[in-house]
Amino acid sequence: DRLSPTGFQQARWLGDYYHRHGMTFDRAYRGNLRRHRETADSIAETFPVPSYVEDARLNEFESDILIHEYIRETGADSPRDRATFLHHFPEVLEGWEQGTLNGQESYTAFRARVGAAMADVLAEGGRSLVVTSGGVICVTLAGVLGVSARGLADLLMNVLNASVHILRMEEGRLRLELFNATPHIDGKERSHARTYI
Fold it and tell me: Parallel, antiparallel, or unpaired for β 52-54 and 27-30?
């Protein structure tokens, strides 16, 4: 639960991007994991951010526990490369959704806690910056897009670190405006810093 040197740089570049493009936020939120704090603080080095509201409901789910249980239940080998991980991870999340795999919390409980946190963010109105993890982002998007846990896995396996996602409230419902953007890293001179799960 800590950023790598690349992670710190990604967050500083994101803050600088927001600053150079005149972005503003009415409020800011983050989970209470160390990597959330480090990301938030690094963004704030180059971009004036309102004081962060810390909310543990924005913390990641315990994927390692689910993967270990999946390996124990199925006899599958521990994933040692991305190809194996891509094959097994949708099955892990599908088992979690169906209740055949159990983490520290159920899939339903995870969706509910993240949904409650996002409802509180939305209730404040205005523009909010939320610093969190890929699972929280993707379970929110899964609700917006109406996809299953298997679809959530497909989203999650391709979420870039320090990526930008924009959701907009329109006509009483959330709509996806932007997914997985990295304008602060996209240039050729920074392409080495594009990282994901």
Answer: parallel
